[in-house]
Write a structure and sequence with these properties.
The chain has 234 residues and is an alpha/beta fold. The protein contains 9 helices and 6 strands, in the order E-H-H-H-H-H-E-H-E-H-E-H-E-E-H. The protein has 2 domains: 141 residues, 3-Layer(aba) Sandwich (Rossmann fold), CATH 3.40.50.1000; 71 residues, Putative phosphatase, domain 2 (DNA polymerase, domain 1, Orthogonal Bundle).
Length: 234
Amino acid sequence: MGSKGRMRPSVIVFDVNETLSDLSPLAARFVEVGASASTAGLWFSTVLRDGFALTIAGENPAFADVARELLKVLLTESAHLNRTVEEATDHVMHGFGQLELHADVAPAVHVLHEAGFRLVTLSNGAASVAERLFDAAGLEDRFERLLSVQDAGAWKPDPRPYEYAAKTCGVDPGQMLMVAVHPWDVHGAGRAGLQTAWLNRSEAHFPTVFDEPTYTIPTLEALAEVWERSPSAQ
């Protein structure tokens, strides 16, 4: 684990898409409509790219709107669809709305909550996505707030969402720890003054073009274990 800016945070902030939710079932949805399984990853990356671009252009689009429109683009380019583009889009989007949490999320959330941390989410998607995930897993009472960039004026990694989260929670940014699987999210949070934890479930390489995270963890349970070992560490 890294050592940059270590201290016990009072608020732990979780990214939602991919960090908490498991996107892997989406590949099967694409195959079911006649597209390639690899289109799932391309689609999600393209949604982020264009969301970032629109943010730079001064807009703050809804994640679902960007996702649906770019899905139509990719599916229109597929030569083997077994239904109309509109039907295929609905099928994939329905699958996106039925995703579940990664297996390491619930155990870690319970431990962190019991250890006294305030838990919130901060997503480029709608807060309702996190709400559905937590309701299905029985975790709704573990989170203090479910925050979305829709109320912050810009997508992450623009500094405004992180500043919005700190202001909403009534703490200084340095008292917050941002947990994300995306290096760009880690970088943005760190630049906004938050501590950061990069969740590296796949043993990937952290790109050196981004600022180093405060912590690197293989699972969310590993983060919980850090604070179990030293619950009052400064």
